[in-house]
Amino acid sequence: MNALAQPRKWEKVFWPVLASLVFLVIWHYAVRWTASNIFPSPLDVEKGVGELLGKGVLWGYIGDSLRRVATGFGISLILGVPIGLILGWYPAAAKVVNPTIQMVRPISPIAWIPLSILWFGVGDNAATFLIFMGSFFPIVVASMNGVRNVPSMFRRAGRNFGLKPAQQLARIVFPAALPQILVGLRISLGIAWLVVVAAEMTAVNSGLGYLVLDSRNSGKRYDLVVAAMLMIGVIGLILDFGIRRLETIKSVRWGFRSEG
Amino acid sequence: MNTSRRVFLGVAGWTAGVSALHGYLNVNWTALRNSMRSLDRIDTLVVAGLPVTCNLTLPIACVARDLDKTSRRATFEYRRYNGWPEIKEALISRQIHAAYMLAPLVMDLVAKDIPVKIVSLGHRSGAVIMVRTDSSYRSFRDLVGKRIAIPSRFAVDFLFLRKMLAKEGLSNTDFEIVEMAPPDMPSALYARAVDAYCTGEPYGAAAQRAGFAVPLVMTRDEWPSYICCVLTVRQELIDQNPALVQELVNYIQGAGSWLDADRANRARASEIAADRKYFNQDKAIIQYVMDNPTDRVTYGDLRMIRAEFDDMMNLSVQAGTLKKPVPFESYIDDRFVKAARPARISI
Predict the structure, then answer these.
(1) To pair with A184 at 20 to 30 A between CA atoms, which of A1, A116, A145, B145?
(2) Given CB atoms, is A51 within the 8 Å cutoff of chain B?
(3) How far is residue B304's CA from residue B292's CA, in Å, rounded to a whole number?
(4) Are the C-beta atoms of A187 and A142 separated by less than 8 Å?
């Protein structure tokens, strides 16, 4: 193996698939050898997924979780990017608001559950709020830093061309900050999807997070717990892959100054 | 001495220092040694429970046992857990060998070959269905189509709700049932996120005492022999240390009789249970449960009656929480209750 070597096309699929198979085999035999009567083997998990598909609830659960994450993340995006841009543009405002942001940011979404139920009742709104609380701050911080890191040369060039501040923000600063904003979006989407289990502790009755919690409550259904975890992982992978594809769009690539 | 050696010594010294401090301040070496002994030689038996009034006999039994310096058997240590799944997992994975559990959950575990047995009841009654004081709901018919919160489909509170609904010719499908952690229920009712909730005490009394909720119906009136929390023990403990299990049952039965003997005992119990080591709750709320009315929860009759357990088992099968009937002998070991000599509680 050579650190500089480019993987061949078939290798990009072959190695991950092989690694997954090896992992499954190790998992299966680990369960067998320890004779655990709780931890499910891959076959138990597969049967659990089959059971959910048979009952017709699996796609509904996946859809409901994705919907909540899309709403929460969408609101974070719509509010977070402009707020981050403004805070980056006006450093004085950032100095005032930053301590609050840094204080609220580390609070785990689970800690917000009692308040979210009080403010939003039970169900989707409370869950969406928790997802919003998890995903809002990375977007704000990334947008803020993206604006701050725009070379002053760009801003001066814009001023020389007679652009007003609003036009500068829209036509120079935002595109230049876009790579960093996208990194923030990627982190934020990851957190939003991660928070889904906590968010679905707000008395909802569907979703992958709900599946984890409910299976845990119901006697010994750890096969469904692990099945839900696997599905959360796979969907997280797909979401991350999707958002990384955004980075390949031409107008976004403009902001990546390190390449030609 | 060169820099890298100094750094190495610094890091090593720091790690050793912090570890020693941690070992001195945080690690309970007695408990650690105890957990490595076999069950017939332990000094302390950890018994897990939730901070609910259904489990009140447990802190009383622990305190009373501590005061008895004559017995040479293990003492009991109360360990507070905050949810049934955590207790269930700790029991399954042998981290604890005794706990208060929900009876249907024990039946389900036994059906799935987990070797546990119910050896005593913990209480009777103590569940309520609460509605807002300013609401117009006076019967379940008024609540049709509304949202009712329950702790879990596996909680006996759900069976209580179903029983009440069946009495009026209704079923839980006529309502929107949501599952919620009991501590969140009072504020959910206050915020009108739910229209009613069904749970065990003190989560009914918490809202009632705050003035915004009133019981629609109580097990005290409708189902006074209601059982939910039962003392469950792993089979290994029964096999390796039956004398200790007998002593535990003696103290639980003694605590039950003591609690029902005198209201002053209930007041003393509220004081003990409120402590941070036990329930860590407001003493006034626990006392409110004890007083309003005085038999809201009862602890005196802790007999294990086959017909009652079969009834609960059948209700669970009907509710869909048990897949198939579980025989009484497979999850109950009643020799300890039959041979019980209730301990004298002098707290």
Answers:
(1) A116
(2) no
(3) 26
(4) yes
pLDDT at A254 over 70: no
Question: Is any Cβ of chain A less than 8 angstroms from the Cβ of B86?
Answer: no
> What are phi and psi for residue B101, nearest 5 degrees?
-130, 165
Cα B223 from chain centroid?
A: 19
Nearest to B151 by CA among A217, A232, A32, A112: A217
Distance (Å, rounded) from C-alpha B140 to C-alpha B126? 19
Domain, as residue range, for B85: 31-124+227-338
Find the closest chain A residue to B321 by CA distance. A218
The pLDDT value given to residue B26: 92
The angle subtended at Cα A206 by Cα A203 and Cα A207, nearest 5°, is 110
Q: Kindly give the pairing relationship between strand B176-179 and strand B147-150.
A: parallel
Decide which of B222, B242, B263 is a domain's last residue: B222
The pTM of this model reads 0.83
Which residues of B, range 117-156, sit inside 8 Å of A by Cβ? 147, 149, 152-154
Residue A20 corresponds to which tokens in the numbers above?
Answer: 């997954």
The answer, yes or no, to whether residue A213 has pLDDT greater than 50, is: yes
Beta strands per DSSP E along chain B: 44-49, 75-80, 98-102, 116-121, 124-125, 127-132, 147-150, 176-179, 196-200, 213-218, 229-234, 297-298
- Residue B40: which CATH number? 3.40.190.10
Indicate the number of domains in chain B: 2
- Rounded distance, CA B337 to CA B328, Å? 15
Cis peptide, bond prior to residue B293, ω within 30 of zero: yes
Share of chain B above pLDDT 90, in %: 70
Amino acid identity at B78: Y
Interface predicted TM-score (ipTM) of this complex, two decimals? 0.75
**Integer CA distances (angstroms), A182 to A106, A137, A241, in order:** 21, 14, 13
Fold of A42-253: MetI-like fold (1.10.3720)
Q: What share of chain B is helix, strand, coil (3-state, %, to 5)?
A: 50, 15, 35
Q: Locate the domains of chain A by residue range.
A: 42-253
The answer to whether residue B52 is domain-embedded is yes
Give me the torsion for CA of B53, B55, B59, B62, rounded to 10°: 160
Return the CA Rg of chain A. Answer: 22
> Does the residue B18 lie in any domain?
no
A13 Cβ under 8 Å from any chain B Cβ: no
Amino acid at A110: I
Please write the tens of the pLDDT for every residue from B35-78: 889 999 999 999 999 999 999 999 999 999 999 888 888 999 99
Residue A201's contacts (CB-CB under 8 Å, 6 or more residues apart) are A110, A113, A209, A213, B181
Chain B residue closest to A115 (CA)? B187
